[in-house]
Amino acid sequence: MIGNDIIDLHLAERESNISRRGFLGKLFLPEEQDIIAAATQPATMVWLLWSCKEAVYKIIHRHTRERLYAPHHYVCALQEVTSTIVTGTVTHQQQTWFFRSTGMGACIHTLAAASPSLLEEVQVFTGYLFTTDYTTLLPGRVFYKDADGVPFTRNRYTCESRPISVSHHGKYLGIVSI
Predict the structure, then answer these.
(1) What's the gap between Cα 15 and its chain centre?
(2) 165/111 Cα distance (integer angstroms)
(3) pLDDT, tens digit, 9 for 90 and up, residues 21-42
(4) Domain 4'-phosphopantetheinyl transferase spans what residues (predicted)?
């Protein structure tokens, strides 16, 4: 199972006041708020942690088909932090998921999967949102969503179906597939 999330940092800065009273407490556990406070770029860390929770939420939604807004049920832990990549885990109901976030410039793109090895197998397609013709990013495949809004692609010739995760924010688009 895979998930992804993408954050346009410029749009997030314009649309959200992370300094607003209660904002961090609504989304993050005390340990996560400590990570944010200790970060050299706290605003970027807010959106990094949020994208990790969202990427795992997409995996959970695909599995359960339930839409439940509960950010405190997703616990982030960082493992490796560099200027361009962050890795770590997100725990949800005693299950651990692994993530890798990249970008750290104008956007953050997070991939999440059930294992670190699965993260290595994921095919990543990124672009600008105005490239809405997914066939450009996924040649030979047809994009569709099931009745619960869960995205898939189907091979035009063999009709073989694959799960994908689609994320867009601001001017950025991210798609991951196995």
Answers:
(1) 19
(2) 9
(3) 999 999 999 999 999 999 999 9
(4) 2-68
One DSSP character per residue, 63-127 reads HH------GGGEEEEEEEE-SSEEEEEEEETTEEEEEEEE--SSEEEEEEESSHHHHHH-EEEEE
Report the chain's C-alpha Rg in angstroms: 16
Best CA proximity match to 126, nearest among 103, 99, 155: 103
Q: Which among 78, 87, 63, 57 has a CA at the least distance from the CA of 167? A: 57
Domain at 2-177, CATH from 3.10.350.10, 3.40.50.1100, 3.90.470.20, 3.50.30.30:
3.90.470.20
The pTM for the full model equals 0.90
